[in-house]
Amino acid sequence: MEPVPTLVHLDSPFINFRDFDFAEGSHGYRWVNTKRFRLPADVPDDRNVLAALIAHPQFRDTYDGAGVQDWPRHGQWWLDRITPDTYKAVDDATAADIIHSWASQHGDIPEKLEARLRQEIYTPIRTATTRYVLGRLAEDAFHDYGPIHIDYHELVLIDRPAAVLVLLVAADD
């Protein structure tokens, strides 16, 4: 494998379901965190892109409210248990269904939230060149206080024409 390219972190939009009025049903303490990165022009393949993401300091986030830390954890797992091979390629319909099924599991989604999901989540899923879902990791991959989320879904969206990578984490507490 070639040297790991450098990604540039652009921003980290956060969608908190508690910010929307669920007239019937529940927000379920759900949220979506996206981290967007600029891709360098010379990244040869997706495996190298995934390796660059895993190596990036922004990847060291347990999504427990502590933010990005200099520690060997990502999500609920030890960082060293996650490799490019732990991500599995999926098509746009599968990626969108993962998010839609999770988001609507407690009932109807308020229209304002649905609009935001369309703009910030479903559109990037649709326009991505390739999409990956974090596969199932072994039980011993959980770090010392994981699992901390009830549901946890992680997608990586690579949009080569736009030169953007999106790390998308959808979870609930």
Describe the model.
The strands form two sheets. Strands 1, 2, 3, 6, 7, 8 and 9 form a seven-stranded antiparallel beta sheet that branches. The chain has a two-stranded antiparallel ribbon with strand order 4-5. Helix content is about 25%, strand content about 25%. Helix 2 (about 90-105) packs antiparallel against helix 3 (about 110-125). Strand 8 and strand 9 form a beta hairpin. It has three helices and nine strands, in the order βββαβββααβββ. The N and C termini lie far apart (about 35 Å).
The total of helices stands at 3
Number of strands: 9
Structural class: alpha+beta
Helix content: 10-25%
Query: Mind telling me the C-alpha Rg?
Result: 16 Å
Low-confidence stretches: none
Order of helices and strands: EEEHEEEHHEEE
Q: Could you tell me the mean pLDDT? A: 90
Categorize the overall geometry. Answer: globular
Please state roughly what percent of the residues sit in beta strands, choosing from under 5%, 5-15%, 15-25%, 25-35%, 35-45% or over 45%: 25-35%
Largest sheet: 7 strands, antiparallel
* CA-CA gap between termini: 37 Å
